């Protein structure tokens, strides 16, 4: 591996040309069953939601709903991606998580809620406070369970579970907001006088004061599934069920405060329950990310001691500012391809760190040896085209 000569080096090293084929990352094996199930679910969910939206027969309201509903999506997604900086999840899977929440979870929950009202005749208030949380969290959490069942390597811990669950929640909130905002714009039947003013009023409540509501609820399921993946406890399989119960309870408390007692408890629930719960989850997520940094330092240090990579590389692969500095320097001395090589090398090293940590803790998956070997071989192929900044002290 080419490296800088030391802190006083003035001339950038000359990197060998990067073979284009080297930048083609090996395809990860996926589950055909996962792809088939997801495709069918997305097609059915899209058809159901298209019928629901077309049945409103209010194209103007639909446009207003989409425009306002999309505004909080970017910032909320950015918050979850910020948590996912050590081992960024595949964009395709993140997009599928959002799509599942937007069409599959919403459609499935609507069908079950409609069936409940048709068969059991549950009053609207009880349906919103009890049936909606049960059905919505069931379908939202199903994506995370399906993902870990079919692609076990996709989730390495609680933070991964939280990110995927959060993206599902963002997608669900997006579609639900379109329905609520469109109904507010049309007005009538408890939706106010209608018009843009009513829609903006609903947007302030749902898009500004509580954009993290659905992601927050489903995050409990994601944490439970992530814990079940990495835990050695005999009771780890209860964690997803506990996460689901907490998600339903939080969701029910939130909905119930708006529908019972004339809504007089809504503000109190928001201030004394919703906000503290949000802060707790945020604090937990930040703590989990810091814990990942310590874990990667420990596991990659042990991997380096076994000869899988250089010991001096570890801090440059773990510390986020150092990782950015490496990519910037690689681009400066070798162009875009050198930067891509550095990013790929960092990604492989971090994935190796997560896998090696599970090996050290005795929770490694059955295929850990094959996966670890493939990661090490990939790193060895990339290594001759990687260079570190002068501040790295001449890593060779």
TrEMBL record:
GO terms for biological process: proteolysis. Keywords: Hydrolase, Membrane, Metalloprotease, Protease, Transmembrane, Transmembrane helix. The chain crosses the membrane at residues 33-55, 61-81, 93-114, 126-149, 161-188, 208-230, 237-254, 266-288. The lineage of its organism: Bacteria, Bacillati, Actinomycetota, Actinomycetes, Propionibacteriales. Residues 1-24 are annotated as: Disordered. This is PrsW family intramembrane metalloprotease. GO terms for molecular function: metallopeptidase activity. The keyword Isomerase does not apply. InterPro entries: PrsW. It comes from the Bacteria.
